[in-house]
Amino acid sequence: MRITYDCDVLVIGGGIVGLSTAYAITRAAPGTRVTVLEKEPGPARHQTGRNSGVIHSGIYYRPGSLKARYAVRGAAEMVKFCAEYGIPHAVTGKLIVATDRAELPRLHALVQRGRENGIPVRELGASQIAEYEPEVRGLAAIHVGTTGICDFVAVARQLAHGSGAEIRYGTRVVRVDRRPELGVAVLTASGDVVRGRVLVNCAGLQCDEIARLTGDDPDMRIVPFRGEYYELARPELVRGLVYPVPDPAFPFLGVHLTRGIDGGVHVGPNAVPALAREGYGWGTVRPRELGSTLAWPGSWRIARRHWRYGAGELRRSLSKRAFTEAVGRLLPGVSEDDLVPTAAGVRAQAVLRDGTLVDDFLIREGPRTVHVLNAPSPAATASLPIGREVARRALSAL
Ligand SMILES: Cc1cc2nc3c(=O)[nH]c(=O)nc-3n(C[C@H](O)[C@H](O)[C@H](O)COP(=O)(O)OP(=O)(O)OC[C@H]3O[C@@H](n4cnc5c(N)ncnc54)[C@H](O)[C@@H]3O)c2cc1C
């Protein structure tokens, strides 16, 4: 049987990971025909366009993990990519500040981890914090030199442009028909069929659903965690990036203060369960999606294991005063009036059946298919190496 393919590699998802994959494929194998299908009218409308905009150094991640390797390499590459294409960015450095004695051992462990990952770290006593951030208080801190900020939406646009791929916006994939000996045909919401030899699933918040449409059992579910942000009305209170010491039980970094490339300071994100995959506020509820989250045993196991942490996050989501108090531990001069609500983001966090929050990036293959099943922070920072790895796997499946 002779089949006409519309492309060699069909990528679902026009976020930074899908676009970086398309970019890497056309660089590694010029002439390969790549089509990206994105349901929104433009690139980067979900996680990629709703994050903290931080180029992470890689300090937090277990040495040897994909996150550590790709973040360290990816941060340097991201700075170079931005410089090459005139994309707004800056290498600002950042502070991680301990405000409680119980956090001191974890701060020291981070210093160690940073050194293992080859990241320059300076340890600071309480009085030295003011050298960097006069309004910030803490018992001790570390300064990480290689952290930066950039405009990830502009990066995604440049990757789309530079990839030479055909990018079809406003194209939602609703069905997948995969024949291991032939290739993949997808049906779009408008009734078109697009055929490719290999499928790459970079659907972010919907990646587990796309995996299931191909017939693969991903053995995980995306549990969406919303991160809410405020804008600081007095941005002069913060010079750069200020983070708390993260709780190692969670893959989230805690509410931080980040001066973005536009000069504004964002405060957030917290981590609360979203009631829809794209649930950017408490008012957005999608019963089918919520039902699928609740039907996953892992969701209940997280709730049982981490209810105390979750209750604190919920309280800080529902009460601005509670949120302000939490921020005040780092920045005592902040008041409720200084915090102006701004757009939230939702993290696509993979959760296993036993309730494990998948920590590392997770890339899986099926016949003629590559699935990116866990690409939370720092995947925007690490998007160039991730894209190359996904591209390598897709090209070897051709
Ligand atoms: C609150 C928050 C803060 C963060 N802060 C940082 C940070 O400071 N630094 C950092 O490095 N990372 C950060 N991250 C993580 C980073 O944003 C993500 O890791 C990265 O954007 C993931 O990119 P993606 O392409 O996988 O997903 P996305 O950007 O979500 O893209 C997936 C795309 O798939 C499309 N799609 C889904 N289903 C379909 C379908 N059926 N058909 C067609 N298209 C479909 C969606 O519309 C979407 O555009 C943060 C994330 C959040 C949420």
Automatic annotation (TrEMBL):
Keywords in alphabetical order: FAD, Flavoprotein, Oxidoreductase
InterPro entries found in the cross-reference section: FAD-dep_OxRdtase, FAD/NAD-bd_sf
A GO term for molecular function: (S)-2-hydroxyglutarate dehydrogenase activity
Highest taxon in the source lineage: Bacteria
Cellular component terms per the entry's GO annotation: cytoplasm
EC number: 1.1.3.-
Protein name, as recorded: L-2-hydroxyglutarate oxidase
